[in-house]
Structures are given as structure tokens and as C-alpha cells.
Design brief:
5 helices; 477 residues; five-stranded mixed beta sheet; 12% helix; mainly beta
């Protein structure tokens, strides 16, 4: 009879008084007898303690178990009861079933231990995952603590004839990973993947150069505002002109879905680019040129800054009423730099010009200034770090030499400065970042574009555009 037949032929007599396993002389297992009454029904019925046995006979009640004896019998390989007459073959089979898993590796059944680390495979895997998560968390915190400003830029592009004009916005990096920059009368598109440069536009009038560039949120349309005449809309895929919005001078533009908002002198115009007669509303509140426009990330609020030193907050649903939500008058110079916080959507950062030099944080739900820091320099642009709570400011003129033409990194919300980048020799007029938020580009009156990995570090496997930033210098045309 084989092993399977031997094991299947066993039977239990639940009403026996003894618990002893006996074998026939032919060493085949034919009968089970109870030799001990420590777990017998008679003992349980005579006990004054009531026990509840709701189910399986193979799962013992721990309150009735002699754990010391069970542990000794199950863990000892040599100390078997003296009266047991198990054959060597049966003992080998039972020991293998009780001490080896399905893959032939040892484990112990019914051994009560305090630590799960010596348990079976699945539990060990859970421990390893938890340990790995803890290590990753510690490493992440260590990386955050070790973050430092780069000593220099990772790439430089020549940008001849870029306008040295505080009131223009002549650079933008779209979600399609195409950088648009206006150099004098010409507009160029630069692809960082293959470093291909394409001239999209050249204006005929020397006095009417591109003064504002803005990619739509989906990266399919580029709005090009000319300083003296109109706005041109280009299809990003075909590079063809698809629409013209006539009748105003352009200093700033910002998209909100299919609505394109532009500053025209003292007025704010909203265009629905899907229809022929695109103008849907006109807002008049600023007493001087509108030089900064920025829609909030949620699309419900518009911030406008002007040469009248005022910041207005407008609500999208009340544009036709021309009634603003808040009017902030704390700045004492023109406000061009505006940036909405990517993690606190109601927070707006604004920066003042030469005579102001202050970065102010506004709570647009309460209409209050929650922080203000004096940078002691003209603020031309602001850009939030998408990965860490930080804000970068671009600076121009300053009464102090060490403050002018710098990029500064600030921790949010304390607004404590982390450091400065001082490579530019002219004032830094524009800032933009690539779609994944790992690379920042600055445009300066020194006719260069400089690329910075100021928002890292991030593992190289997560930097899809890092390979294009390995050269020391090249020209955009």
C-alpha cells in the first residue's frame, strides 16, 4: 500500500478515552485510538467552565492546550513519546508534511512566535515591502534636505535682439514641449528634443514686434500679440495662421480654456476664439497700461496687474458686469509679475517694479495679504516650483549691485530665501518652465536664454528632457 493509501485509511474515534496512535504489525496505519483524556469529551462535559466550539475540529481551543508540550513535540526532531511505535517511513512522511512547504522549504506549523519575520513566505514579503517603503521614505526626506541650488546653468542659447522691455512677455513654454520666444521682429519655436529651431513669424513693421506670447492649455494654439495692432493665432501642428483678433495694442495675454484674455492699453478684453465675432466682454478698471494677466489654475479667477501699481481679482462668472472681486493697492510700482500657487489654488503671488521690489502673497478668498518680502530689486517675473513648495523670482534693476539681474529661490510659505543665481549680466525679463516642471528657462537683456535644473533633484529616469540640456551653449537660430 502506498503512502497516499496509508494516510487516507486513517479514521478517528471521537468517543475513545485514550489518544494513542497504534500500527498493525505489518506497519500499515489502520486505526486511531485515544490514549490521553486531556482533550476528551468526558473531561469537557465534567468541567465547570463552559466552552464554545463553533466549528472546525482541526483548530484547537488555545485555552485547553498544553502549549509547552505542543511546542516540544512539534519542534523537536528526536523527542517522541516513548509509547509511540511509528515506523521510520511513516515518521519521515509526517515530518515532511508538517515541516516543509509546497516548495520543499522548511517551516513550522502551530508554533506561536512573537515576530512575523519567521512566518511563511507571504508574510515575509509584506515585511520586505514595508521595509522598502520605510527606506524610500527616509531616502526621500534625505534628498529633500540635501537639495541645493545649482552652481550654474545646464544650457545656454543665444537670443539676439530680444527686447529689453519690462512691459513685454515674449517667451512661453507650452504643454507640447515647444518653447516660443520673440527676438526683435521675429518669432521662433524651439524643440528641446531634437533642438530644431523654426521661424514662425516676421513682422514687417519695425515698430510692431511681438510683445506677448501665450500657449493655450492644450498646447495646440499659440497666441501672438503685436505691440501696436492685433493678435494672431497659430496652429501648433501646422504652424499656420488660423485667426486674427483686430483692434487693440497687446501687452499681456492669458488663456482660460477657449477664452483668450488680453490687455489692451487700460482695458482687459476677453475673446471666445471659437466664434467669428470673438469679443465677449471688456473690463475697464486700471488707470494705466495692463502689463500682467494670469488666470487661476481652476479657471474661476483672473488676476490683472497694471502700471498703476494695482492688482485686481476678477471672477469668471461676473465678467460681463465689469465688477471686480478685490482691488489690492499695496504695491508702489508697476505689477507685471503674477503667479498662482499650484498647491494652494487661492494664493496669488505678485511682484512690484523698481520702486517697490516686494513679493506679496494674497489670499484671494479673504482678500488679504498673507506675506510680503522686500527683494530690494525690480521683479520682472515669478514662477512656482511644481514639485516643492518654492517660488522663483527674476530681477532687474536695483540700487544694490549684488541684488540686480539675479534669480532668487524662496521657500513657501515662510518666504525665506534659499539662494541666488547670478549668471546673467542683464536684467532677467522672463521665466518659463517645461511641462514636467523640472527645467526652468530665463530670458535676459544680455541676449541669452539660460536653462536651470533649479526644481530638482529628480531621478534621471524621470527626466524625459534632461538629455537636451547637456550642451554648454548653442544658438536659437
Amino acid at each position: 500500500m502506498d503512502t497516499k493509501e496509508i494516510l487516507s485509511s486513517s479514521r478517528i474515534h471521537p468517543h475513545s478515552q485514550n489518544m494513542k496512535l497504534e500500527l498493525n504489525p505489518d506497519t500499515q496505519l489502520t486505526d486511531w485510538k485515544l490514549q490521553s483524556d486531556w482533550y476528551s469529551p468526558t473531561r469537557l462535559h465534567n468541567s465547570p467552565v463552559e466552552y464554545d466550539f463553533p466549528g472546525d475540529r482541526f483548530i484547537p481551543n488555545r485555552s485547553l492546550m498544553d502549549l509547552d508540550q505542543a511546542c516540544t513535540l512539534l519542534t523537536s526532531k528526536t523527542n517522541y513519546p516513548n509509547k509511540c511505535n511509528f515506523s521510520a517511513e511513516y515518521r519521515r512522511i509526517m515530518e515532511g508534511n508538517l515541516t516543509l512547504d509546497s516548495e520543499g522549504r522548511p517551516f513550522r506549523m502551530l508554533v506561536f512566535r512573537g515576530s512575523p519575520k519567521s512566518s511563511r513566505k507571504s508574510i515575509r514579503y509584506v515585511d520586505e515591502i514595508r521595509r522598502s517603503d520605510e527606506d524610500n521614505f527616509k531616502n526621500k526626506n534625505r534628498i529633500n534636505q540635501q537639495r541645493k541650488l545649482p552652481k550654474k546653468e545646464t544650457k545656454i542659447l543665444d537670443a539676439p535682439f530680444i527686447q529689453d522691455d519690462f512691459y513685454t512677455n515674449v517667451m512661453d513654454w507650452g504643454k507640447n514641449n515647444i518653447l516660443a520666444v520673440a527676438l526683435g521682429q521675429e518669432l521662433y519655436l524651439w524643440n528641446p528634443v531634437n533642438e530644431d529651431t523654426h521661424r514662425l513669424l516676421r513682422t514687417e513693421n519695425l515698430n510692431d514686434p511681438p510683445s506677448s506670447l501665450s500657449w493655450s492649455h492644450d498646447g495646440k494654439t499659440l497666441a501672438v500679440g503685436l505691440s501696436q495692432s492685433h493678435i494672431q493665432l497659430f496652429d501648433a501642428q501646422t504652424s499656420k495662421l488660423i485667426n486674427r483678433l483686430e483692434g487693440h495694442h497687446v501687452g499681456a495675454t492669458s488663456w482660460n480654456g477657449h477664452i483668450l484674455t488680453s490687455g489692451s492699453g487700460k482695458a482687459i478684453l476677453n475673446h471666445d476664439v471659437r466664434v467669428r465675432n470673438s469679443l465677449v466682454s471688456r473690463l475697464k478698471a486700471h488707470r494705466s497700461k495692463v502689463c500682467g494677466l494670469k488666470w487661476s489654475i481652476t479657471g474661476n479667477l483672473l488676476a490683472s496687474g497694471g502700471d498703476d501699481n494695482v492688482v485686481y481679482i476678477w471672477e469668471a462668472s461676473r465678467m460681463n458686469s465689469a465688477q471686480f472681486v478685490y482691488r489690492f493697492t499695496n504695491h508702489v510700482a508697476a505689477v507685471k509679475a503674477l503667479a498662482w500657487c499650484p498647491y494652494n489654488f487661492e494664493v496669488l503671488a505678485s511682484g512690484g517694479g523698481t520702486n517697490d521690489g516686494c513679493i506679496k502673497l494674497w489670499d484671494t478668498q479673504q482678500g488679504t495679504c498673507i506675506n510680503s518680502v522686500n527683494t530690494e530689486a525690480q521683479i520682472c517675473a515669478l514662477e512656482w516650483n511644481k514639485h516643492y513648495k518654492e517660488l522663483v523670482s527674476a530681477h532687474g534693476y536695483s540700487a544694490r549691485d549684488e541684488r540686480r539681474n539675479n534669480l532668487s529661490l524662496w521657500r513657501y510659505p515662510s518666504m525665506v530665501k534659499s539662494g541666488d543665481l547670478t549668471s546673467h549680466s542683464g536684467r532677467v525679463l522672463q521665466l518659463a518652465q517645461n511641462p514636467d516642471g523640472l527645467t526652468l528657462v530665463s530670458a535676459s537683456a544680455d541676449e541669452t536664454l539660460r536653462f536651470w535644473e533649479i526644481f530638482g533633484p529628480v531621478p534621471l529616469s524621470k527626466r524625459p528632457y534632461s538629455s537636451v540640456l547637456s550642451l554648454n551653449g548653442s544658438s536659437i537660430r
